[in-house]
Records
---
Amino acid sequence: MDDAAFDNGKYEKQPEKGWRLRADVLNVLATRTPEGIDAMFPNPLDVLPWIEAQENAVLKTGFDANDWIAQTWAYDRHNIGDTPGFNGDYLKALHSIKAKALLMNAPGDLYNPTDQAIEAAKYIPDARYVQIPSLQGHTAGSAAKTMDVDMMNRTAREFLDAVTDNGKKL
């Protein structure tokens, strides 16, 4: 929004400077852990061309800046306790969930912090929390991390088999 090309959301062309900044902060810094970045780039300056490639990839996606701003605001402001009938009480809302639930995330996930996932699993009556053993933070389980994907698929398969009698409806 600080990009002059943004023009209060009335841009004719995507605000590239703003997009690049968004890519740097949200796609690179907020989705990875310092340990994950260190593992990817033992020489710290090697991260710079990679960051530029991430910026360019975001620019090629065709996503709209106003759309991403709205998604970010929705994500930041969502509170399950605001669901009608719960009067802001998110614990009461979590406790009302009747579905069997599997919650997974990796340490260092800045979008979905581990402590919040663990707490949510405590209050959802039939929930299980599993931590992904990864240094990748929010990007754990991305296609580039086959070990994470394999672990998540195996865990989800085991969970679904357990709650459905090996795939049969209960």
---
Amino acid sequence: MPDNDPKTLIEAVRHFSDLAMCRTYMVGIKWPSGTVTCPKCNGENIGLVETRSLYKCRAKDCRKQFSHKVGTM
């Protein structure tokens, strides 16, 4: 766990109250290599739909939209 991660519940609430910070943290956990991949086709040609905070696979036969929460509890 990096040094800047929250250590207490209060720190976690403050740290993750910013949705962009939360998303960045979750993306780092889900894709530690830094390369976002499609959960359907494993493609790496991924775009971001900023208005909806979703990713979109750009593979011709897929085009699936997904979030950083896909496959989590």
---
Amino acid sequence: MKPLVILYATRQGQTRRIAEHIQAAIRERGHTARIRNLREVREPFILDRYDGAILAASVHLGKHEPELLDFVKRHRDELDKVPTAFLSVSLAEAGAEDATRSEEDRAKATADVQRVIHEFLDQTGWRPRRVRAVAGALLYSKYNFLVRFVMKQIAKKAAMASDTSQDYEFTDWKAVEHFVDDVLSDHAAHTAKRDVPAPA
């Protein structure tokens, strides 16, 4: 059986952590998974070597990482031939999941998350079988002075943690595990359908 591939694009590393968590969860469930940083992928990249693909990328200033956009545009036809899933990692999703916020604020954050995802999918024409928004992190310790200042202003505006002396992780790891189960269910269905013998 071919492995699954997890392709990620990240800036400060939270999406890499999520990708690594997904890889470990897939292995714990008895499957094989490879993980690749999209910044390090060299062409030609042959998706036929894999039984499915999970693509994950962080969002900055309302846009997914450019290497994800480039990869999907180049490989959309191949992606359409295997089960695929997409994780969009953002701080807006943290706002959407924050139970301490008002319903109005959470609804606005949810709308922002969905808008960014839909814009990306419309721009690429890609239609993954699974799409999941995942809350990211504020990793102040990993930012340079300018990025730390900008992220602090964004956090303040969004009523999020703005104390730059510490980092904040918002990722719901249980939700990520549920996502893995859904992906493996799709993978099993695809494999069973592919392996059905042709009528005599």
